[in-house]
Amino acid sequence: MRTKIAGGGGATAAARTPRLIRSRSASDRSSALSRQRRKLYWPFVAPALLVYLALFFGPALAGLWISFQSWRGSGDQMRFIGAKNYQRLWDDPAFMTAFGNSLKILVICGVAIFVLAFLISAFLRQMRFRKGLQALLFLPYIISPIAIGVGLGLFLDPDGLLNSGLRGVGLSSLAKPWLAPDQIFTTILVGVIWVSTGFYVMLLMAGADRIPKFFYEDAQVAGATRLQQWRYVTLPLSWDVIAVAAVLWVINSLRIFEFVYAFTGTAGNPPEQVRTVPIYQFLMTTGGKNPAYDMGYGCAMGVVMVALIVILVVFMRRVMRRDAVTY
After folding, report:
1. What are the distances in angstroms from CA 256 to CA 94, 160, 225, 249, 313?
2. Which residue ranges run through the membrane (predicted)?
């Protein structure tokens, strides 16, 4: 028995030897390949990294430095004033109004967009011709925000197409001055929701379409309603897409500029009650009918907004972090 075992062990060892040799040979080739890859890593990565550092970190650091200066642009001598630009932001009611407007767009439009996107995506999953409907919903997002803003401004003019149509069908009581000072920001919020919802419907639908159908079939066999299917199947299995969509909305909402400017600024600068931070920053630097050319102040606004975006993105990532679900 011992001989048999010894003989078997010798045969096994003999059989394992070529495999061991092949394994070592493959390991050597892999190591050689890894060494070659390491040699090529920096030559390939370094140019892109240098361009990134030059075009991103360079201007970012310059903006941070200028935010501590009093400077009116090229040809003017910079004068270091410390944190006075940041103190001025805190004391500036126009900036606080713009900051509040940006936060309102972030929160109010964000909640409305995601509620609508969830509802629409849940219904579209069960509908025929959903690809065509998705395209129609996505259409406003791919049109230039300038064109959308100008078009909506003309459409909602007191004598525009909407009010004229309402009066024409005997609904004069519903015709309103949509662009009046006390109404215009609400109209802008509705416009932002209309323009952006289609994009987030597309994202959520892309996440839901990855889910195998048998999950829904099992849920239906178990008697789950459509809402329960969304709660227990769609939501957890597409959570990573939802988290990315939420981060994208945080970033995009705080940068909204063209739509509001085109919607309200066709006859001059946008009124103070509808300005977002990017618009106020534009007016305080090189934009508008009478630019202020206050570059240091404008850079301070930019630094504040970048810091806010970073804080919100980190917060969102931590709050929405879940264990990865594989299926």
Report:
1. 17, 25, 38, 11, 17
2. 40-68, 105-124, 136-156, 184-206, 232-251, 295-315
